[in-house]
Design goal:
Elements: H1 3-6, H2 12-31, E1 40-44, H3 51-66, E2 71-75, H4 82-89, E3 97-102, H5 103-112, E4 124-140, H6 148-157, E5 163-166, H7 172-184, E6 189-192, H8 196-204, E7 210-214, H9 215-223, E8 227-232, E9 258-266, H10 271-285, H11 288-297, E10 300-303, H12 306-327
Parallel strand pairs: 1-2, 1-3, 5-6, 5-7
Antiparallel strand pairs: 3-9, 4-7, 4-8, 4-9, 4-10
């Protein structure tokens, strides 16, 4: 039936989605591979070398064989990850452009940076959760604090006298410090750095009193005694630190924070394409290469369905939006 004669009108996104679905199904039947053997552009919204980039490259290598195509990692850093996210949001919903990202551009930055060139919920189709990164509340070895409660009591006794480091305003490390203030009433000084590494170095050097640090980066320093771990932000204790309590066990309920890594496609990508991507990336996460890498990076591989990722991103979007509003955090 001719669309104009029937009175049916399609948006450009709907037309592209329908075309992509037909192409994907036809190519899959013909070759068993990805649509037409075309290259997949895996956009990483951060510079090379970080966890998101390293993970993306490892998954891309696995997908080359699983999807019988070529996956190219495309680093588009800037504006706390929002430049790369915008690039994907504007792309055709055909399964050939993916966003391998972390929690920041999808659940935190939209509340801090004002109007963005994309909607973090409506402009992206969830594909799969790659993994989660637990954090550890650490203090320098010379600090007197032996528990989270002792740290809080000291901050309450002398407001704005204890400083915490983060990798920058609006990062998930910053958000955890803000959440700790809101939930306890304690007042700290936030010291933002240009990245997690210099923040950790100044925590080691006692220039600041504490920080919420990624597990992989802080574990070596905890083991050699140059940092003291007070609590972990995950729901369960870390196998690498069986004697360190969770924040809940330390007396602070509703303080579970895990920095997730995930994959998104442009909104309107056909469900059949999303499911094929989900299955392929899920298989990649089960390979020995990815498991070895995740152990090295301190990442717990997750996988799961697009629906599970959708629920998690919506919950974190609402959670961090409230924290940012209540703490009056601005870029």
């Amino acid at each position: 039936m001719n669309a104009s004669r029937s009175g049916i009108r399609f948006s450009r996104r709907q037309f592209l989605a329908a075309s992509a679905l037909l192409a994907a199904c036809g190519a899959a039947r013909a070759t068993g591979g990805w649509p037409g053997g075309k290259t997949i552009d895996w956009v990483v919204p951060y510079p090379p070398g970080g966890s998101t980039d390293v993970l993306g490259r490892a998954i891309a290598q696995q997908l080359d064989a699983l999807l019988k195509t070529t996956v190219i990692v495309d680093n588009r850093p800037g504006a706390t990850g929002t430049i790369g996210a915008a690039r994907v949001a504007r792309s055709a919903p055909d399964g050939l452009t993916l966003l391998g990202t972390s929690i920041g551009p999808q659940a935190i930055a939209p509340h801090i940076m004002g109007k963005l060139p994309y909607d973090p919920i409506e402009d992206f189709a969830p594909v799969i959760t790659v993994g989660t990164i637990p954090h550890i509340l650490v203090v320098g070895a010379k600090q007197p604090y032996r528990s989270v409660q002792a740290l809080i009591e000291a901050a309450r006794a002398q407001p704005d006298s204890i400083a915490y480091a983060s990798g920058g305003t609006g990062t998930v490390l910053h958000m955890q410090g803000a959440l700790l203030q809101l939930t306890t009433g304690a007042r700290f000084i936030h010291v933002p750095y240009k990245g997690d590494t210099p923040a950790l170095q100044d925590t080691l050097g006692e220039q600041v009193q504490f920080m919420f640090a990624p597990a992989a980066a802080s574990l070596p320093h905890i083991r050699n005694g140059s940092l003291r771990a007070l609590a972990v932000t995950s729901a369960q204790r870390l196998p690498a630190l069986p004697d360190v309590p969770t924040m809940a066990e330390a007396g602070f309920d509703n303080f579970v924070v895990e920095q997730w890594q995930a994959v998104f496609a442009p909104a309107g990508t056909p469900p059949a394409v999303i499911q094929q991507l989900n299955a392929a990336i899920g298989k990649a996460l089960e390979t020995p290469a990815l498991k070895t890498l995740s152990d090295k990076l301190g990442i717990t591989l997750v996988g799961g369905s697009p629906q599970q990722l959708d629920e998690m991103r919506r919950a974190d979007f609402a959670k961090w939006g409230k924290v940012i509003r209540d703490a009056q955090i601005k870029a």
